[in-house]
């Protein structure tokens, strides 16, 4: 474990820095900008999902561990995209015309 840390020390520090920076940026986003940012994040997730599917096509059919992890990743990515669009749609409907009862 210590050897892994020593070999990848710069990458680990970069990942930690990006995590804290991302949390700080997201925490300071005003509510009015949430919907456009959510739509952009969904578009990025869609591109990542397409890339994951392309990579899964190149996995050896006998490598069940990689196929299982890839399938779970594609499922969770799809769930993330669908949930993001659902939330974005709900937020946009709050600004639409009110229906009369």
TrEMBL record:
Its main location: membrane. InterPro entries: NADP_transhyd_a_C (IPR024605). Its EC number is 7.1.1.1. The keyword Cell membrane applies. The chain crosses the membrane at residues 12-33, 40-59, 65-92. The keyword Oxidoreductase does not apply. It comes from the Bacteria. It is a multi-pass membrane protein. Keywords: Cell inner membrane, Cell membrane, Membrane, NAD, NADP, Translocase, Transmembrane, Transmembrane helix. It is found in: Cell inner membrane. It catalyses: NAD(+) + NADPH + H(+)(in) = NADH + NADP(+) + H(+)(out). Residues 12-95 form the NAD(P) transhydrogenase alpha subunit C-terminal domain. It is an enzyme of class 7 (translocase). The transhydrogenation between NADH and NADP is coupled to respiration and ATP hydrolysis and functions as a proton pump across the membrane. This is proton-translocating NAD(P)(+) transhydrogenase. It comes from Wandonia haliotis. The lineage of its organism: Bacteria, Pseudomonadati, Bacteroidota, Flavobacteriia, Flavobacteriales.
